[in-house]
Amino acid sequence: YSLTGFIRALRSVVDALRLERYVLVGCSLGGHIVLEALPLLPRCRGVMALTMPITNPARFEQMYAPVEPMSRAFSEQPAPAD
User: Fold this and answer.
1) Which of 2-11's residues contact partners 24+ apart within 8 Å by CB, and which partners?
2) What is the rounded CA–CA span in Å between residue 51 and residue 43?
3) Rounded Cα gap, residues 65 and 5, in angstroms
4) Three-class SS state of 9
5) SS (H, E, C) 11-40
6) For residues 74 and 29, what is the distance between their CA atoms, to the nearest angstrom?
7) Which helix or strand (DSSP H or E) is residue 4 part of?
8) Closest Cα partner for 21 from 46, 4, 57, 55?
9) DSSP 3-state percent helix, strand, coil across the chain (nearest 5)
10) How far is 53 from 37, CA to CA, in rounded Å?
């Protein structure tokens, strides 16, 4: 669960579908993924990113209000119950 991993996944989908001319749309975290992936997707013809500004590089722990379930989602070593 990292920005790099999401970018790799997006690029894999674009490559698997053999897209030649396409527009990427991303909302929230997806908007950041789309924006960060652009240098790796030269055939992309447009972007719509609906998102809030974050730091570069992205720090996921700063993107959300500090609530217990969300902190577990970004843990590097989650407990087995999580």
Assistant:
1) 3/32, 3/33, 3/36, 3/57, 3/58, 3/60, 6/33, 7/33, 7/36, 7/37, 7/40, 10/34, 10/37, 10/41, 11/37, 11/40, 11/41
2) 22
3) 23
4) helix
5) HHHHHHCCCCCEEEEEECHHHHHHHHHHHH
6) 14
7) helix 3-16
8) 46
9) 45, 15, 40
10) 16
Q: Tokens in use for 33?
A: 């993924």
- Could you read off the pLDDT of 16-60 as tens digits, one per residue? 999 999 999 999 889 889 999 999 999 999 999 887 766 666 666
Rounded to the nearest angstrom, the gap between the alpha carbon of residue 37 and the centroid of all alpha carbons in its chain is 8
Burial of 33 from C-beta contacts in 10 A (0-12 / 13-18 / 19+): buried
Region 59-78 average pLDDT? 64
